[in-house]
Automatic annotation (TrEMBL):
Domain of life: Bacteria
DNA-binding region range list: 34-53
InterPro entries: Homeodomain-like_sf, HTH-type_TetR-like_transc_reg, HTH_TetR, MT1864/Rv1816-like_C, Tet_transcr_reg_TetR-rel_C_sf
Keyword line: DNA-binding, Transcription, Transcription regulation
Descriptive protein name: TetR/AcrR family transcriptional regulator
Signal peptide: none
Organism: Agrococcus versicolor
C-alpha cells in the first residue's frame, strides 16, 4: 500500500477516486477515462480503484449520480431564488441548460444510455430522476394548479424535453446560452395565450 493509500485507508479512498475521476472527466470527457489514469491522478496504485469500482462502467455510473445530484441542486437553487411561480419555472429551465453548458461531460454521462440504462438505472439514480420529475411537477402545478394529474405529468415530460433539447442545442453550438432564458419566457407566454384562447372559445 502506498502512502497515499494509507492516508485513504479509513474510508475516503472512494471519494478521492471519484473526485480525481471527475476532474479527468471535466478535462477529457468519458471516452478517455480509465481506472489506471484515475489511480494516477489520485496518487494511489493502479489496483486501488478496484476496491471500490469493479470496472470503468461502475465508476462512470458513480459520476453520473454525482452530476445528476448537482443538476438537481442547481435547479432547486434557481427555484429558491425566484420571486414567483413563473420566474421560478424560467429560472429552473435556465439552470438546467446552464449546468449542461458549464459541465458538458458530466451532463453527458448522466444521460449516456450505456451508463444510465433506461429502465435499469439503479436505486440511487432512480431516486434522483424521480426527484427531478417531482421538482418540475411542483413548478408546473404552481403555475397551473387546475391541471389534472395526467395533464401535469404530460406537462412535466414536455418541460423536461424542452430543457433537455435546449441543452443539447446549446452544447452543439446551435443556440447561444444567452437565448435560453428568453426561450423559456416565450414558452410560458405562448402557453398563456393558448389557454386564454381556449377559455374565450369555451365562453
Amino acid at each position: 500500500m502506498s502512502r497515499s493509500e494509507a492516508r485513504y485507508h479509513h474510508g475516503d479512498l472512494a471519494g478521492a477516486l471519484e473526485t480525481a475521476a471527475d476532474g479527468l472527466l471535466a478535462e477529457r470527457g468519458a471516452a478517455s477515462l480509465s481506472l489506471r489514469e484515475v489511480a494516477r491522478r489520485a496518487g494511489v496504485s493502479h489496483n486501488a480503484p478496484y476496491h471500490h469500482f469493479p470496472d470503468r462502467l461502475a465508476l462512470l455510473r458513480r459520476l453520473g449520480i454525482r452530476h445528476m445530484g448537482r443538476l438537481l441542486d442547481a435547479q432547486r437553487a434557481a427555484r429558491d431564488g425566484a420571486t414567483d411561480a413563473r420566474s421560478a419555472f424560467v429560472a429552473m429551465g435556465a439552470a438546467y441548460v446552464g449546468y449542461a453548458h458549464d459541465h458538458p461531460h458530466g451532463f453527458a454521462v448522466v444521460f449516456d444510455p450505456e451508463v444510465c440504462e433506461p429502465g435499469s438505472t439503479g436505486q440511487e439514480m432512480s431516486a434522483l430522476i424521480a426527484a427531478n420529475e417531482a421538482l418540475i411537477g411542483e413548478a408546473i402545478a404552481a403555475i397551473a394548479p387546475d391541471l389534472s394529474t395526467a395533464q401535469r405529468e404530460a406537462a412535466v415530460v414536455g418541460a423536461w424535453g424542452a430543457a433537455h433539447g435546449l441543452a443539447q442545442l446549446v452544447a452543439a453550438g446551435h443556440v447561444p446560452v444567452e437565448a435560453v432564458r428568453p426561450a423559456f419566457e416565450a414558452y410560458l407566454a405562448v402557453g398563456a395565450t393558448l389557454s386564454d384562447g381556449v377559455t374565450r372559445a369555451a365562453g
